[in-house]
Specification:
The complex is a heterodimer of chains A (383) and B (222).
Chain A lengths: L1 H10 L5 H12 L18 H18 L3 H22 L3 H4 L9 H7 L4 H26 L5 H66 L4 H20 L9 H16 L2 E7 L6 H21 L3 E8 L3 E8 L6 H4 L4 H13 L2 E7 L5 E8 L2 H11 L1
Parallel strand pairs in A: 1-2
Antiparallel strand pairs in A: 2-3, 3-5, 4-5
Chain B lengths: L13 E5 L3 H11 L4 E6 L2 H11 L3 E5 L6 H9 L7 E6 L4 H10 L3 E4 L4 H12 L4 E2 L1 H10 L11 H4 L3 H11 L4 H8 L3 H17 L3 H8 L5
Parallel strand pairs in B: 1-2, 1-3, 3-4, 4-5, 5-6
Helix pairs in contact in B: 2-3, 4-10, 4-11, 6-8, 8-10, 9-10
Classes of the chains: A alpha+beta (383), B alpha/beta (222).
């Protein structure tokens, strides 16, 4: 790279050929993209060679042709070059490379690249002024010396020129802005659609296929439909909360597991929410056990699960309208009730109460008192 | 939910179905045929508005989600001109904002589409009698929305707070109790339970509690 630059500087001697070549190469050849993050802006220091080249041209001209007119012309060309260089150089190379969205002409793309509006304006106006000055200067220099009208003409021509460029470029720019915007919107929509399509494909179509295959097995069909419904609902409505952190999410997960395992419906209603800790975890586990019992023994399709978080206690109610049982008769043989529900609640400082009668369903009431401060803190955190 | 037979002998109720799924309408029509007279159905808001005005049913079963504005639009169009027509919202969705939105627009009850035919018939009768119908989940939402928060000032205690008794009734509803069972549990009459629930419905419709207006305002789906 450096060698090329040196060669070009040498070429400068030949009537500024080097400069022209440099500018041409620079515009046409793609700059090597440094892929390491973060993508850096074009270094301001890179402007230095440009300035130096301009200066070199001037000096050379002044030396070679001792003619003042040509010398001034060289100056002005240099000014034009530097102006163009500013417009060009300050644009962000990574943005310029924004790809197919931008039109083929790199200079337009450079102007369009919206990095920082104020900066953009500054460079555009600054560059424009420099170019105009340059053109005016050239006209003034080559015109008959001392002619004021020539200078005025020059100014007018320069303005007309700029105006022309503006008129030509404006619709193009406008279209490009629009194109960019619609492109971006389209991409976002496409992304959302793809996400939705992926979800439907992974879940819904899969479930429908399974339902068709298992259509003879009513229980299985119900289980599949129920599970799919739950996951769609979650997808539509719920902000995802981790079952390991929140009480409500943990209960809902437990209910979902029981639904899936035993092909029943658990009507879950949770009022309020709190952080999970060891005791809350025990409460959820006891509730899960109660749900499992209901699913296994009650012989009904629907079980109600209601939980409420209050200032000083958490309560969970699991209720079914199923077979029910005689409490005194079976208590010893049923480890689920004794150990997993009553015992577990007692160990963690809560209590469990079971109401049941044959033919009248069963209700398990679980109550865990909590320290006031921790609930208040949890409520604060939830807010 | 409970005693569907209470008033069955009086007169068969007339019911109108509004739902954009023809399959669902056909299913409900078949299921309800034994209990009530389904006198018409509509699949869009515009169709519903004109046909309900002509048919004047006792109860309209109203789907929450429809393409052109949903049940909310039907309620807004009908409530003033036909105050005697009662609306029962019926939806697969049990998202709080849908439920509360419809109740506040004037529906007298809300049930999910998974409800059994007998329970649906009972709910229709209850709504026709001027009472309210709360699904367990709706009861849960109401408890949540009316939860006493020390930092929220109560503008109108009459509307913005639930009484202890109403709270108890709602809790039992949320626990899956039928009205009859609630009455037994609390040692009150079924009529009293119904009164409590109707009062809660009124508060739900009139109260300006922040949670309610928020839920009623942001409906994410149509």
């Amino acid at each position: 790279m450096l060698v090329v630059r040196i060669a070009l500087v040498v070429l400068l001697g030949f009537n500024g050929l080097g400069l022209l070549l440099y500018a041409a190469f620079w515009a046409v050849l793609p700059q090597q993209v440094v892929t390491s993050d973060p993508p850096q802006r074009r270094d301001l220091a890179m402007l230095l060679p440009f300035g130096a080249i301009g200066l070199g041209v001037v000096l050379l001209q002044a030396l070679v042709f001792d003619d003042s007119v040509a010398g001034t012309a060289g100056w002005l060309i240099a000014v034009v070059a530097v102006g163009a260089g500013i417009i060009w150089h300050q644009s962000d190379p990574t943005k310029r490379r924004l790809g197919g969205a931008l039109p083929q002409q790199p200079w337009l793309a450079a102007v369009v690249a919206e990095s920082d509006r104020r900066f953009f304006l500054f460079r555009f106006i600054g560059g424009g002024v420099l170019v105009a000055t340059g053109i005016i200067g050239v006209v003034a220099v080559y015109a008959p010396a001392g002619s004021f009208t020539a200078v005025v003409n020059g100014v007018i021509f320069a303005l007309v020129g700029l105006l022309g460029v503006g008129v030509v470029a404006a619709p193009l720019l406008w279209r490009m802005f629009n194109q960019l915007r619609t492109e971006r919107e389209g991409r976002i929509r496409e992304q959302e659609r793809a996400e939705l399509a992926a979800m439907i494909h992974d879940q819904v179509l899969h479930t429908l296929a399974l339902i068709q295959r298992n259509s003879a097995d009513i229980k299985e069909v119900q289980r599949l439909a129920r599970g799919q419904e739950r996951s769609l609902r979650n997808w539509l409505y719920k902000p995802t909360a981790s079952p390991t952190e929140r009480f409500a999410a943990a209960l809902e997960q437990a209910a979902a597991e029981v639904e899936d395992t035993y092909a029943i419906t658990v009507e879950t209603v949770v009022v309020g929410d709190t952080e999970c800790d060891e005791r809350v975890g025990a409460l959820v586990a006891a509730a899960r056990e109660a749900l499992v019992n209901a699913a296994r023994h009650a012989g009904v399709q629907t079980v109600s699960l209601y939980a409420e978080v209050e200032e000083d206690e958490l309560s969970v109610f699991v209720r079914d309208r199923g077979a029910g049982f005689e409490l005194s008769g079976v208590e010893d043989s049923r480890h689920g009730v004794r150990g997993s529900i009553v015992g577990r609640m007692r160990r963690h400082g809560g209590k469990a109460e079971i109401r049941s009668a044959p033919g009248d369903g069963t209700e398990v009431r679980l109550i865990m008192s909590v320290a006031r401060e921790s609930v208040a803190a949890a409520k604060e955190a939830a807010r | 939910m409970s005693e569907p037979e209470t008033n069955e002998t009086d007169r068969r109720l007339t019911v109108f179905l509004v739902d954009d799924h023809a399959m669902f309408r056909a299913g409900v029509r078949a299921e309800l045929g034994a209990h009530v007279d389904v006198i018409g159905e509509a699949s869009s808001v515009a169709e519903a508005v004109s046909k309900i005005a002509a048919a004047e049913p006792d109860v309209v079963l109203l789907d929450v989600h429809m393409p052109d504005g949903g049940g909310r639009a039907v309620l807004d169009a009908m409530r003033r001109s036909h105050p005697h027509v009662r609306f029962l919202a019926l939806s697969v969705s049990d998202a709080a904002e849908d439920v509360i939105g419809l109740i506040r627009a004037g529906a007298r009850g809300y049930v999910t589409k998974t409800i059994s035919p007998e329970e649906l018939a009972a709910a229709i009768r209850r709504v026709a009698d001027g009472d309210a119908v709360f699904s367990p989940r709706l009861a849960g939402f109401v408890l949540d929305a009316f939860a006493s928060r020390p930092d929220v000032p109560v503008a109108d205690p009459e509307l913005d707070q639930l009484t202890n008794r109403e709270r108890e009734v709602l809790r039992l509803l949320a626990r899956g109790y039928a009205y009859k069972e609630i009455a037994k549990e609390l040692f009150i009459s079924i009529k009293t339970v119904e009164t409590h629930v109707s009062n809660v419905l009124r508060k739900l419709q009139m109260s300006n509690r922040y949670e309610l207006s928020r839920w009623a305002a942001d409906r994410r789906l149509v």
